[in-house]
Specification:
The protein is 39% helix and 12% strand. With 491 residues, the chain is an alpha/beta fold. It has two domains: 7-56 and 63-153, no CATH class; 199-366 and 431-489, Rossmann fold (3-Layer(aba) Sandwich), CATH 3.40.50.
Length: 491
């Protein structure tokens, strides 16, 4: 039940709400009164507050009995201008107090970083166990502004027990204030941005590092790769170099693996360029390791993935041999192409389709020379041709790089000229491929601008004392140089 208040206490409660702008509900909650009580006191103050100005000097000297009579006397009518003056006086005093408080606060130095959380209490109110509010000291006035500023000045200073006022933990050392640098967490050191080669733009191949994100490995998988001494070792070394480069590719890189052979045969690991994740690397590794070291196993292993009919590469007719393999690899729009090329001019005629000669102006049955036996030429001519070929090779190449046996020199010369000495009458095994025309067809079929042509690095894996035809060798070297690549011998 709310406590009984004196008239003076009721006046202070209403004036506190008016002067300090305290809402009615908060004021009622603070003093444990109802809204009806507060409104009654408020209306009574407005209606009867003017009676205090009607006391004269003679009445002031009278006794208490006369005062009681005046207080209990009813005022039937209060002029409107009296009410207006009373309200105007109250708000004028409130505005003057606010201006004075702001001015004093602005001129007093306040230490930065210190914040006062609590407002000074107007009165001390004790909450009883039965949830009733008892007014303990309603007449207690709020502390002066100077006292409040003094409390702010003392905040953060050391007290007698070594603690900082406003803080629970004592300070260590002789420092009068806590070190802000020690209280803050150390700043995190940002990692340096990785270079372009660390973001997946790095390809390692045969002890060299290349800056590229999209790479195509082009391998010559013709059966002629297994001909000659140490051919198997060269072929295995070629596969190992590709496997080592594949395993080092970043997961952010892209690649594809293309196998080509003869004039116009190719298979690829996929129709498009593939992300260098573990699964695609595993497919490429299994495909490379399946390439056997015999012609039959090699033919079986290379025909496992997408054949040329399913690829998106549309290579023009007349582009054959190394140029066909490069055209297929460049259709994936890579940054770099690594081409491990064998002796493609040494293809087997039985493995080449008639359609592969389209666009070259020749037929499959065209030979550079007719069969000597059909012309009635005997064995004497065979011996003459062998010796002539041997003299030609010695004049072309230093004897220090040739065998000592004359017959071995003649065999090398005949292979260099494309003549099969095992057949009767010395007939030509290889067709006369116009490599210059094939290169022109290759350039005509390029749909990329000169700036978008990838870097091309060609590594020749040829037998000893074997070279490409001069026109093919020269045009390939010039093309690689124009793409900022090169033509070299492997290994």
């Amino acid at each position: 039940m709310p406590a009984e208040f004196t008239g003076e206490q009721k006046l202070r409660i209403v004036l506190e709400s008016i002067i300090r702008g305290v809402p009615r509900d908060d004021q009622c909650k603070k003093y444990g009164i109802t809204s009806e009580q507060f409104q009654t006191w408020h209306d009574h103050l407005i209606k009867n507050g003017g009676s205090i100005y009607e006391q004269t000097g003679s009445n002031a000297g009278r006794g208490s009995n006369h005062t009681k009579k005046i207080r209990t006397r009813k005022i039937k009518y209060v002029p409107w201008y009296i009410k207006f003056l009373l309200i105007l006086s109250i708000f004028s005093n409130l505005a003057a107090g606010i201006v004075w408080a702001v001015w004093n606060w602005s001129v007093q130095p306040v230490e930065p970083g210190l914040i006062v959380d609590a407002e000074p209490s107007v009165s001390q109110i004790e909450i009883a166990d039965d949830n009733t509010s008892l007014v303990k000291d309603i007449t207690t006035q709020p502390p002066e502004l100077d006292d409040l500023i003094e409390q702010v000045d003392q905040f953060g200073k050391l007290s007698d027990d070594g603690t900082v006022r406003g803080m629970k933990a004592p300070l260590s050392g002789n420092s009068p204030r806590p070190n802000l640098e020690e209280m803050l967490a150390p700043a995190l050191k940002l990692p340096e941005p990785p270079s372009s080669l660390e973001l997946g733009n790095r390809v390692d191949f045969i002890d060299q590092t290349y800056e590229a994100k999209h790479v195509v490995y082009l391998i010559d998988a013709g059966s002629y790769q297994l001909k000659g001494p140490n051919a198997v070792e060269r072929f295995e070394s070629m596969k190992l170099s590709v496997l080592e480069s594949l395993t080092k590719l970043s997961a952010n890189s892209y690649f594809n693996l293309v196998l080509c052979w003869n004039l116009r045969e190719s298979h690829a690991l996929g129709k498009t360029i593939l992300r260098a994740n573990d699964e695609n690397k595993r497919y490429a590794t299994e495909w490379i390791t399946s390439l056997g070291i015999t012609p039959d196993l090699l033919k079986e292993g290379r025909n496992q993935f997408y054949p040329k009919e399913l690829l998106y590469a549309q290579v023009l007719p007349g582009v054959v041999g190394p140029w066909y393999g490069l055209a297929t690899a460049m259709s994936y729009d890579p940054d770099v192409v690594f081409f491990l090329a064998g002796n493609m001019p040494d293809f087997s005629p039985d493995e080449v389709s008639r359609n592969d000669f389209n666009g070259l102006g020749i037929t499959r049955d065209t030979n550079l020379l007719a069969n000597p036996q059909s012309a009635g030429v005997g064995q004497g001519l065979n011996s003459l041709i062998r010796k002539t070929a041997g003299y030609w090779l010695v004049a072309l190449q230093s004897e220090r790089n040739l065998p000592d046996n004359a017959e071995e020199i003649e065999e090398i010369a005949l292979k260099r000229l494309g003549i099969d000495s095992s057949l009767p009458g010395l007939s030509f095994q290889k067709h006369a491929i116009p490599w210059g025309k094939s290169f022109d067809n290759f350039l005509a079929g390029l749909e990329l601008g000169i700036s978008k042509i990838p870097q091309v690095y060609v590594f020749q894996t040829l037998q000893e004392h074997t070279r490409w035809p001069t026109s093919l060798q020269k045009s390939m070297a010039e093309f690689c140089e124009s793409t900022r690549g090169n033509l070299s011998v492997f290994p």
